[in-house]
Amino acid sequence: MKNLPVYIVIFISVLALNSCTSNCDTSVYYYAKVPVYGSIETLRKGFEIKGVQPMDTITQIVELDHAYFLEEKGKGVHVVDKINFTEPKRIAFISIPGYLSLEAINNTLYVGQATDLVSIDVSDLNSIQVEARISNVFNADYVKSDSFIVGYTEAYVRLILEDAHCAETHIMPENRSEIESQSVEPHVDLHITNNHLHACDNKNVSSFSISGGDLTFRASNSIVSGRNTGSPKINSTREFVAVGTPRSNIFLFQTDGSLSRVVSTFVSSPFICGNFYLFQNAAIYTDFRTSSNQNCNSQNTLHIHPINGLSQPFMPRQFPFTQPQSISIMDSSMLLCDGNAGFSLFDFKNPSTFNPDSDMFDEITTVHSAVSALSKERILIWGNDGLFYFNVEQPTNIRLITEIK
Asked: How far is residue 64's CA from residue 204's CA, in Å, rounded to a whole number?
């Protein structure tokens, strides 16, 4: 190169240096949720009836004539005997490793456990036992070598970026959000409609015929769309079954177990947090951010959204509350769990004209309220203050019966 001009030599040297430094690998370190796996067979064999256990976080309460059943995700179901309705008592805990969801009818509990649907006979609370099981119908994406995700741990992870232009690109651990995405966890939701059990995971909805504790698979359909955000819920009216989340598509299916798609698909706001419920011709959303990691713009409002009305199609009405977390509907009454503000009981016979100020029967503001079970005469309330039992025989005069320890 001795005969080349100096500026060309310099140019070639720079090119060589850049090509050297741009084809190396860079290691990036960051914290992430790392799944912990457990044997699926061990989970299936882990069903056990235990004595009363501490209650941590209750996410749903279902009611049968003789008992309440309170779900605790990942752990199992707390049992409250209410045969003596003036003195209900906690009597047992059904330990179900990999437990995800609960539904009940007559004397049978239906449980989503990891990949399986399980029926449990609870007709005799002193002899609770598994009745039937259909294996490997949910959460196929969370199975690895006959094991299933049973939890997560936080770990310091090394990620190698190949050909990372290491001379120009360097991602420090504190900038890990640039490359870390939040994972969608295993999920099952269950709902009984017209003697069929409908169940969904993050990708599919399935239907099962139920008779006593017997289970028979009927059909399955995809609920994957470009707006899916995970953890879809199921609810229903007389006309259709709805599956999805307020932040993504809500798919409508026939209620006969065939899972034939209804033509319309209901879409709501991408910013809503919380669950959705159906009553008459309205979808009701409790818009409350339960986690700082939720990517939403919660306004702590109750949304009432017509789904097939003609006068205001797809135009939600919104009502401000403190921390609207869940609702229970019985006949024409609606109970709203409002977090630190307690709970309120409303006349809800006409959702299209609902007004919280004029339609309130009564409210209790002295206990934190997160989830409830409402029947014609009683309410069971769970919140940060504990488990409370109320008399609502006179809706305008709610009275505390007892705190259940």
From this structure: 28
